[in-house]
Each structure stands twice: as C-alpha cells, then as structure tokens.
Write a structure and sequence with these properties.
- The complex is a heterodimer.
- Chain A is built from 17 helices and five strands.
- By secondary structure, chain A is mainly α.
- In chain A, strand 4 and strand 5 form a beta hairpin.
- In chain A, helix 6 crosses helix 7, helix 9 runs antiparallel to helix 15 and helix 11 packs across helix 13.
- The longest helix of chain A has about 40 residues.
- Chain A is globular.
- In chain B, helix 6 packs antiparallel against helix 11, helix 8 crosses helix 9 and helix 13 packs antiparallel against helix 14.
- The termini of chain B are close together.
- Chain B is mainly alpha-helical.
- Chain B is globular, with a radius of gyration of 25 Å.
- Chain B has 14 helices and no strands.
- Classes of the chains: A mainly alpha, B mainly alpha.
C-alpha cells in the first residue's frame, strides 16, 4: 500500500518533458565545441549568472509544486481498500503545510495581529462591541502580550540571519575548496581567488546572489510559522503561500507556450526554408494569416470557445479542469507566438541550405528528411533557445493582463494575474489593501527582471556579430 | 510603384479571406450556435424551443456552409457563413446581442480611442527617441549603463502596475485628475492626461532600449567615422547624421502600428473608463458577445494588413536605396 497516490497532470508531464529535452541538448552541446562555446561565453558574464541563480530558485519552487499526489486518508476499517484524499496536493503544499492550513477569516495586513475589517463581537451577554478581531494564527504565540510583537519579529530576524550566515559560509567554503582542488592550490589561496574574483566563472557574484536569496529564505522560514509576512487575502489565505504557488503558473505559461508549438514551428519553418517554392508560399500564407489576427483577441475568442466546451466535459476534478485550461491557454498563446519563431527558422534554413555541408550531403544522395533532421535541425536549435528565453518574460507579464481581461487561467488556480485582479477591486477601500498587489509585484518583478537579464545575455552570447 | 501597391493589395485578399474563414470556424463551427444559446440562456433548464427562438432572433438558425433545405444557388448563399462572415468584407458587422448596430458603435467609439492612442503613440515616439539619443550620446559611460539598467527594470514591470500605480499616486493621493471617466469636447483633457501619461511611461523601457540599439548600430558604420574624421563635433554627428539614418528603421517600424491605433488600448481604456473600442471589446469578451468579438477581430486584422502595406510603402519613401519590385 502506497502512502500517496501520484497524480500526473498534463502540464507536469510537459514540464518534465521540457527538462528532459534541455538535459539532452546540454549533453549534446557538451560534446560539440561549436555548440558549447556560446554557453561558455554566457557563463562568464556575472549579470547573467546572478540572474541564473535567481531563476533556478524560481524553477526549484516551480518543480516542487509540479510533483502532485493525493495523500492517503486514515482508514477507518483495517483491511479495507486504501482511500485517497479527494484533493490533489503538491510537494510544495506538503512543505508549506502550516502556511496552507493557517487560514484567517479575511484580509489582514502583513505581520498583523488583528483582522483588517471591524466586526461586531459579543463580549459579554448582550453587549456587542465593534472591534478588530484577533487573528487566529497571526502572532497567536504571543497570547495577549502584544507589546512583544516588535521584539519577536526582530528576534526571529536575528536568528534567521545567523542561520543564513552559517549556511552561506558553508557554501563559500565548499566553492573555495572546489576551486583550490581544481587549481591545485591550498584552500586559503582558493578563497583569496574567489574573493578577488579571479575565477573563470563569476563565483563571487553567484555566491553573493545566493547569499541574498538564502537570507530571504531563512527570514521567511523563521517568520512564517507565526506571522503572515505578506498578510492574508479576502478568504484569509496567506498571501506568501499564494505568491509561491503562483510561481509554477508563471513558469508554465512562460515555457510550455513555446514548447507546445515548437514541433509546428520547427517543421514548418525548416520545410519552408529547405523546399522553397510552393511549400514556402503556403507556409508563409499560413503564418501571415495567423499573424494578422490581433493576439489578445484571438486568445479571448479561443478561451470563450473553450469555456463552452469545458462545461460539456465529463466530470474532472477541480485541479484537472484548471490544469487543462492552463494547457489550452499555453497552446493558444503558442499559436499567436510561433509565427515569429517560424519566420526566423525559415530565414536560417535558407542560409544553411547554401552551406557546403548541406550541399555535400545532397551530393552524397542523402534524402531531404534526413538532411533536415541531421544537418539543419541541430544548427537551428540555438534560435529556439533564444526565442524561448526572450519570450519567457513577455508571457509571464501577459498572464496578468489576460487574467484582467477575464480570459486568463482558471480563477481557482493561483496566479499573479488572479492576485492582481482580486486586489484591484479592493483599491477603493480605506485603508487600502496594498499587500496583495505588493506581493504580486515583487515576485513578478524579480522573476521577469532575472529572465530579461538572462535572455539578453543569451542573445548576446549567440549573436554572431559579437562573436 | 503603383503596380507594386496593386499587387500587394491583391495579395492581401487571400489573407483576409483566410482570416475571416478562420474566425468563422472558431466562432461558429467549433462553438455551435446551440452552445452560444445555452451559454446565454444558462446551462440548466433550457428548453429546445428557447434555444431555437434565441437563434432565430439573431439569425443563427441557418446551417454553417451548406443549406440542403434551400433550392439552387441558395443552398450555398442561405447559410450562416454568407450571412455572418461575408458582409464583413463590406464592413457591415450586423447587430450585437443587445440589438445595437456594431458598425455605428465602432464609428462613435473610434474617437475616444484615438484621443488616447494617438497622443500615446506620438509623445511616446518623441520621448523614446530623445532618451535613446541621450543614451547613445553618453554611450559606454555610467549614464548609459544606468539608463539601460533602468530601461530593463522598467520593462520588467507589468503594464497593470503602471496603471494602478498612476491611479493611486495621481488620483487618489494627489487628487489631480479624476480616477476614471470620460467627457466629450475639451473637458476630455482632464480625463485623458493620466491614461496618456501612463501609456507613454509604460512604453519607455522597451522603446528606449530598442532605439538605442538602432542608434548604436548606426554609429558603428563607416559614414560616421568619415564624419568624425572630417572633424565634426560629436553633437553634429549625432543629430545631423546618425539621427536621420536611425530614423529610417524607427519610423518604418512605427508605421505598422498606426492603423491599429483605431483599436485603442484594451487595458488602458478599460481601467480608465474611456468609452473607446478597447473597452468595448473587453466588455464584449466579458459578456461573451460573439458578434462584437468577431467584428473586432476582423477589423483588427484588416488594420494590421493595412499597416504592413503602409510599412512597405514607407520604406521606399524614406529610403531611396530601396526599390520595390
């Protein structure tokens, strides 16, 4: 009997597929110097590697949130068939269990001890007073001794800083020893090299970024058990938890969108460039037509159609339905964005077709399908990667806009767009509910900024004009 | 030149037909009128009679492409495709679900849309070119680096936050202009200042960075070196030589956007309560009014194709090196 029943959602499957493809590419690129050289160039840029560290933190959270399962219910009768809980959880949910389960009644500000809204409470028989009710979990460990609130927050921060410093020192020591081994010097000398920045990879920048992330994670880890560090939302859910859950949605929209349409873009783009003639005309017509439909409107139209279809689907669980809608949204976004990639691939294939190695393959009598697979495809893959990174940030931002228009991800799914959309309606309230917007802003900004910096570096590293 | 334009116009026809068929299939074949009726009347407790009546009222009760009930040519003409999609080519959009004529709505709502979109476009272009020139002038200094960093940071902020931030700061804290709304005539000014400002500011990041790249690319060319070798001042080189040549890709890149200005900005108009085409579309999407969305998608495609054509023509006008054939 398994303690959990694994659940594989469509988007999980595709996300792991994407990881597998990337790993395969990395393995291939390692053995081929001309493919590996741009990545080496990229790895030497401090800004790109700092962005990469931040992105990997986001990806780690997203992946933890992509391993889904249904926990085993405590069985009442011994010997009966195992019963699994109806709700699907992820590994992240399990790790953040206190955050998920400590729900308040409604809005409360960050680090608050009382609710945001006044309520009528019966203090003694018949006497009703309007007051701000005490939170069930926020600062509950203090009891009535609310004077210690500031001291408690500070003490936890100090403790978190200490732990973070220790962990960071361990990481620095590990890298220093690794560097020392590599260069065959004593580890003190390795540390000196690291501190002076005299290393091939920008380890100093990477460790500094890692240190900041570690510190923030430790702070959150020490505060969250007793405080709602980003406050709570309308139904009392912890906003920090919502923001972390939204990471997966953002990552999926940003990456799967390019992935789901990749086969089409690759096949059509390479075919148009390789065969030319009428094949090229037909494919060009196809993408010009698709391109001339305004993107947002096409998405809106398709999602409207989808809503009707979804209502007719046989019973799916809430999570599966939301997941299917997310996948469909990725596909629609992909339809509106593959045309650019297709055009780039076509142009590159036109260029490659004139190169000696393709001409030689043709002279040897290699068939067109084989030439396209073996000789053209590996040499256009860098375009795919550049497009993937360049489009990522735009797609993460687009998700928020689509949620506002009302054609975004399922309302039950955690996403920054849904957070902003929910908070927007509360802006008119006095005092303002600002923490939902701030949390969504901070998380989106950091992710998109890191993605932008990384994408720029990728483009520069591959740009033949710079090389 | 004329032959080229005629050929491009002819080339636009199959694309428009393709767009129209695609939208029609998306709206009516994937999503049958029965589905639409059920969506509007509520999924539960719908009688077949109610659905039939709903469809008859809106003219959705015809077959999609082929009508076996009719005689002769009417088998092909008395269909939903001919009644709904073909009149689009003549810009007759029919009536919305609430009975109002979509064509007339578009004609009246066009003006508020333009009142926001045209200033955003023009001021944005001016501001971005100015900033890009400043960064190009100070290239490879701290000013340039700081400017690029600022641009990337500004690009990383969602447009929604610019709007919400602007409304909060200017309208709620400072009480300078109303949060949202619109009035005809000169009174429109106080309602338009904030949306236009927000529209311009949210575009600065990407626009400035892009134009800066164009200017820098231009500055690496041989004629600039010649100009410097002649002993011209850096400012003269920048404003008399680089600016003029850099404007070619900038202006031709901007031309494609001009026709789509009619469509307005979906998000800006909706947030600021401006009764333009953008908010019209958003409302239609929220009310699931397929007729309006259909019309707006078609209109958007037409304007985009016009924009592409205008881009090609503008290339020959500003750059005599390009000959159309």
């Amino acid at each position: 009997m398994m303690p959990v029943q694994p659940v594989l959602l469509w988007t999980d499957l595709l996300l792991f597929l994407l990881l597998a493809v990337l790993a395969l590419y990395a393995w291939q690129a390692r053995r081929r110097p001309h493919l590996a050289a741009p990545w080496r160039r990229l790895a030497r840029r401090p800004a790109a590697m700092a962005a990469a560290v931040i992105l990997s933190a986001f990806v780690a959270v997203g992946l933890l949130d992509s391993i889904h399962f249904r926990p085993l219910l405590p069985t009442q009768t011994p010997g009966a068939a195992p019963q699994y809980a109806p709700e699907t959880l992820s590994l992240l949910d399990q790790l953040l269990r206190p955050l998920r389960e400590q729900k308040e009644k409604t809005y409360s500000a960050p680090f608050a001890t009382h609710l945001y809204a006044m309520e009528s409470v019966e203090v003694s028989a018949g006497r009703i007073v309007r007051l701000y009710p005490r939170l069930r979990y926020g600062g509950a460990h203090l009891g009535d001794d609310l004077g210690r609130r500031g001291a408690d927050i500070l003490l936890r921060a100090v403790r978190a800083t200490g732990v973070a410093l220790l962990l960071w020192a361990a990481a620095v020591a590990l890298v220093a020893v690794g560097l020392a081994r590599r260069h065959g010097v004593r580890w003190g000398a390795g540390l000196m090299r690291l501190m002076r920045g005299e290393t091939a990879l920008p380890w100093r920048t990477m460790l500094a970024t890692f240190g900041v992330l570690l510190w923030l994670a430790c702070l959150a880890g020490h505060w969250t058990p007793e405080w709602h560090i980003f406050g709570t939302d309308k139904v009392g859910q912890d906003v920090f938890y919502l923001s972390l859950k939204s990471i997966r949605t953002g990552l999926i929209i940003g990456t799967l969108t390019t992935l789901v349409m990749l086969p089409f873009a690759l096949a059509l783009g390479i075919m148009a460039g390789y065969f030319r003639g009428w094949v090229d005309d037909v494919i060009q017509y196809l993408y010009t037509t698709l391109n001339s439909i305004p993107g947002v409107l096409l998405i809106a139209a398709a999602v409207l159609v989808l809503q009707v279809r979804m209502d007719q689907l046989p019973d799916l669980t809430l999570v599966e339905r939301a997941d299917l809608r997310l996948l469909f949204l990725c596909m629609i976004l992909g339809i509106t964005s593959w045309t650019g990639l297709c055009r780039l691939l076509r142009a590159e294939t036109l260029k490659l077709r004139q190169m000696e190695f393709v001409q030689a393959a043709e002279a040897f009598g290699v068939g067109p399908a084989r030439i396209m697979m073996r000789h053209v495809l590996p040499n256009v893959m860098h375009i795919v990667l550049i497009t993937l990174t360049l489009e990522f940030s735009g797609l993460v931002l687009a998700e928020a806009v689509l949620a506002y228009v009302g054609v975004g991800v399922d309302p039950s799914m955690h996403s920054w767009g849904n957070m902003i959309n929910g908070a927007r309606l509360e802006l008119a309230r006095e005092p303002m509910v600002w923490w939902l917007l701030t949390a969504a802003f901070v998380f989106m900004f950091v992710l998109v900024l890191a993605a932008n910096v990384f994408a720029d570096a990728v483009r520069d590293a591959f740009d033949p004009r710079v090389a | 030149m004329l032959a080229y334009i005629v050929r491009r116009l002819l080339y636009a026809i199959p694309i428009l037909i393709g767009v129209n068929v695609l939208i029609f299939v998306l709206f009516f074949a994937v999503n049958t009128p029965d589905d639409m009726a059920r969506l509007h009347l509520g999924v539960k407790h719908v009688t077949p009679e109610a659905i039939a009546r709903w469809k008859a009222e809106r003219g959705y009760d015809k077959p999609l492409f082929y009508n076996p009930g009719a005689a002769g040519l009417a088998r092909f003409t008395d269909t939903l495709f001919v009644h709904r999609a073909v009149p689009m080519f003549a810009f007759r959009f029919g009536a919305a679900d609430d009975g109002r004529d979509i064509g007339r709505e578009i004609r009246t709502r066009m003006w508020p849309s333009l009142a926001v979109a045209v200033p955003v476009f023009l001021i944005g272009l001016l501001v971005n070119i100015t900033f890009a020139l400043i960064l190009a002038f100070f290239r490879a200094t701290y000013v340039d680096t700081a400017g690029v960093v600022l641009c990337v940071a500004m690009m990383s902020i969602s447009g929604l936050f610019y709007i919400i931030g602007g409304q909060f700061l200017v309208s709620k804290l400072l009480h300078l202009v109303p949060i949202s709304g619109y009035q005809e005539g000169w009174d429109a000014f106080k309602f338009l200042v904030l949306p236009v400002a927000v529209g311009v500011i949210s575009g600065i990041g990407s626009g400035t960075r892009w134009y800066r790249t164009i200017f820098l690319e231009e500055m690496g060319k041989d004629y600039v070196r010649t100009a410097r070798a002649k002993g011209l001042a850096e400012a003269t080189v920048l404003f008399r030589h680089v600016l003029k040549n850099g404007l070619i890709p900038i202006l031709t890149g901007a031309v494609v956007v001009i026709p789509t200005l009619f469509m307005g900005s979906l998000i800006l108009e909706s947030f600021f309560g401006i009764p333009g085409l953008g908010s019209y579309t958003i409302d239609a999407i929220r009310q699931q009014d397929f007729a309006i969305v259909h019309a707006m998608v078609f209109l958007g495609s037409v304007l985009y194709i016009v924009g592409l054509l205008a881009t090609d023509i503008s290339y020959t006008l500003v750059d005599p090196r390009i000959r159309l054939s």
